[in-house]
């Protein structure tokens, strides 16, 4: 018998004894059948640890042996017993009315909220009280059962938590009796196998084994050890489909009965992954064996645990020899420590250069350059360093040849630049010489001719025919025009202003002549403080601007050109923008002869020879912008 049932039985016996004694006391006072003999009643009631309450038929309190906590006896007399109840008021009222109407005792539990705080649980026995065969009231015997009730509630809560845990745990759980029959299963076990609780009641837990040999081995382990742990086996569900599970079974003692608990863990996904890993590992082996690069995987101490055929070919060692070696065993003696540290850094997750070059020493002692990439991989369930090695001997030879060729090309480019610089310098010198000769020699001769023709014209006989006089005058005009043409040609070849006054005055002079001849407005804006530049830079910028404006006049169909000159401490920048028709840069660059007829090649060459930058931007209908930036060291400013 449980403790709770025993307590109830003891209480009923004691209440019965009190009931008989109270009945005796009531019959001692026949004149007052509803009123207890106070002395006798209290002598009995006050000796009881329980609350004994006398109620009238209207459920008001007539007398009480002990007041409730927080209340005085005077506060209880004449008050309805149900007024001290909250949620149970109607329930208790119905119980007590039934005792009055039927004359049968009743047992019930109530919760009393103490006025100053706290809760008391009472177990109450309601007894009918009669006099002369009539119902005159009730006698309530209430025992404080708070400790027991709280223990019961705690036990109930614990049982609910256990059941929730049992039902919702992520592994299947089954409880089997000593005969092997499954008496209890949780939701996971039922879902895992497809069997209902009723189905399990008809079978034994080991009947779900797919193979008889597995079942035999499982039972044998239990027989020998009394338990089994992590027994991986294929089971079958109710539909006959197989699945992998891990079983563990242990004996339990439950309510004086020997039972066993079986735990089933679904390992289908793990088995699938393991099978996939096996297949992947085999695929990996098949793949790396056919690579042109060497592959080596090492353990945490650096010793090889896998190498492919190419790795063996590169190092000259056999597979057996390599499996007893580390990655730094191939290093030159001065490099061994460095590569050992690199492998250790890789193992602890430090960031290292993923691809690098090194020299390895083959078995025969020869040294070869290799390119090595290192990483970490999962091999046989463990994190392991992996190296991929490529023999780059041929590449190094090609790179050496390439370096020689590049050096030769660089020297040729340097010579070409030098020749181009000398050519441009020679051209400018020749232009300057021709310009001076045109100005000095041809100009002087033409001036002399013009003077002689003027003297002849003044000394002609007035009687000569008018036609002869007209021809002499025309000849003198032709000589003047030729002199002017030769002067302009000399200026175009080499304006003397640039040597005497510098770039800006020469540009102002040239722009004025250009605007008059081309009928295009040109505006010059200055940024920074004007300074003289080295002669070769001034000449180059003048020629670039001259070529740009010539292109505008020939191709742009523009009305206005704006030119910015920006002097900076270490550079000078010139930007020329026109509002002409523009052109497609990509189409021009894709032409068979790029920049043909536009003079852009010459502009680019002059800029490159001075280490500068030339940028051309244009779109059809949006004009053209040319920007030239030339570096000028501070020591070269004049």
What would you note in describing this structure?
The protein has 638 residues and is an alpha+beta fold. Helix content is 46%, strand content 25%. It has five domains: 3-152, PAS domain (Beta-Lactamase, 2-Layer Sandwich), CATH 3.30.450; 169-266, Beta-Lactamase; 273-390, 2-Layer Sandwich (Beta-Lactamase); 397-476, no CATH class; 501-636, Histidine kinase-like ATPase, C-terminal domain (Heat Shock Protein 90, 2-Layer Sandwich), CATH 3.30.565. It has 18 helices and 20 strands. The strands form four sheets. A five-stranded antiparallel β-sheet has the order 2-1-5-4-3, with helices on both faces. It has a five-stranded antiparallel β-sheet with strand order 7-6-10-9-8, with helices on both faces. It has a five-stranded antiparallel β-sheet with strand order 12-11-15-14-13. The longest helix has 67 residues, at 393-459. The radius of gyration is 58 Å and the shape is elongated.
